[in-house]
Structures are given as structure tokens and as C-alpha cells.
Design goal:
It is a single chain. With 216 residues, this protein is α+β, with helices and mostly antiparallel strands. The chain has 3 helices and 8 strands; from the N terminus they run αββββαββαββ. A hairpin with a 6-residue loop joins strand 1 and strand 2. About 8% of the residues have low confidence.
């Protein structure tokens, strides 16, 4: 077995065990969709949220380390080396205040981390997996699928984290809708809050694949 594959399996096992601790009821039964966490669960350093897409393999802690934007690019949630890394929040974003929470994760060859996002190239998959859950301090917020786009790493959407003026917002929404592979029935409005999941797209040079949800 390749070393990276072994490390990836180990990382997934650790995250699964962590998930079973955090999302458990009083009887020890895992309920990943619960909106409350186990009150006895200790705080995980630099973990700011947990992101889930129901009925997919995406269920991961979201990390953010002050002063080191890509600290978890090749580290597990414990801070130890891990080829698959751990999903992390853009340094420009802040839970609870930013209007667009941008979360990065690797596109792994074994189908783990954010590689599942590539399944959203298919319309049927989009329609069957339209909700994204973000749990922060025991409270789960739901986002509905708004757009699915192939972009470059310097796409202007990555520059949108905090509230901007209405004209700029409308231009950003027009830009994203023009690139989207999925035609959403949602009409984004000024003041809305978004979540963006981003991973590499190897079908183009310096490509990225993003999934955007709007808070319901």
C-alpha cells in the first residue's frame, strides 16, 4: 500500500472516530445530522466548525489557525503531518461575521476529503444533494445549493468574504451564475450569507471546482 494511501486511511479513521464522539446522543448513538453536540466533548484546538453534506462522504472538521493560513494543508486536526490535510477556512473569513465562508479541501485520488465535490458536475447528483450543514458550537446551519463552478484559483469569487456594496454583490452573483454548471431556482439577494467549498480541478491548469450554498 502506498504511504499516502495508508496515511489517508488513517486520517479518515481518526476523523470518523472524532465525529462519533462529537455527534452522539446520551446513548452513544451517532447522529451526524443532530443540531447539538455532546456537552462532554472537549474543545478541539483551531477547529471552528464541522461541515457535512448529508448522504455523502463529506463530514469533516473545519480548521483555522491564526497567522498560518495553510497550516492544515498537510496536517490532520491534531496538527500532525498528513498528506490529505484537513479542510480549513480561508484566513480572510470569520465564523459568525463573514458573508461568504470559503473552505478548502484536497481532491484526493482515493475519493476522500473534497473529491466528492466533482460529483456535482452531474445535474442528477446536484438535485439529490442540495443541502450543506455547518455546525458551530452545537448549532447547525443549513445552506442550499446555489452554484457549481469550474474556475481558476484567482477567480474573483475568492475575494468575496465580507459584505460589499450592492453593485459589487450583484456583479459577483452575475459572474457566478454565468459560470455555474447547475441552474438553481434560488434568487440570491443582497445581504445573503454563503458557504463555498473549494477543491482542485485537474481538468484545467490551475483549476478549481467550487460548490456554493446560500444560507436558508
Amino acid at each position: 500500500m502506498n504511504q499516502w494511501h495508508f496515511e489517508s486511511r488513517t486520517a479518515e479513521k481518526e476523523i470518523s472516530e472524532l465525529e462519533s464522539i462529537i455527534f452522539s446522543d446520551d446513548n452513544g448513538t451517532t447522529e451526524s445530522a443532530k443540531s447539538s453536540t455532546n456537552p462532554e466533548t472537549p474543545q478541539i484546538e483551531n477547529c471552528v466548525a464541522w461541515v457535512r453534506i448529508p448522504n455523502t462522504d463529506i463530514s469533516y472538521p473545519v480548521m483555522q489557525k491564526d497567522g498560518s493560513p495553510e497550516y492544515y494543508l498537510r496536517r490532520n486536526y491534531k496538527g500532525e503531518y498528513s498528506y490529505s490535510g484537513t479542510p480549513f477556512l480561508d484566513a480572510r473569513c470569520a465564523i459568525g461575521t463573514s458573508h461568504n465562508l470559503i473552505i478548502y479541501g484536497h481532491n484526493m485520488r482515493n475519493g476522500k476529503m473534497f473529491s466528492v465535490l466533482l460529483d456535482y458536475k452531474k445535474t442528477a447528483f446536484c438535485k439529490g444533494h442540495r443541502t450543506i450543514h455547518l455546525t458551530v458550537n452545537g448549532t447547525t446551519t443549513e445552506y442550499e445549493l446555489f452554484a457549481v463552478c469550474k474556475v481558476k484559483s484567482d477567480d474573483e469569487w475568492y475575494g468575496y468574504s465580507s459584505q460589499t456594496n450592492e453593485d459589487n454583490f450583484n456583479n459577483l452573483i452575475y459572474h457566478i451564475k454565468s459560470k455555474s454548471l447547475y441552474e438553481s431556482q434560488i434568487e440570491a439577494e443582497y445581504g445573503d450569507h454563503f458557504i463555498t467549498l473549494s477543491t482542485c480541478d485537474y481538468s484545467q491548469t490551475d483549476g478549481r471546482f467550487i460548490l456554493i450554498g446560500v444560507r436558508t
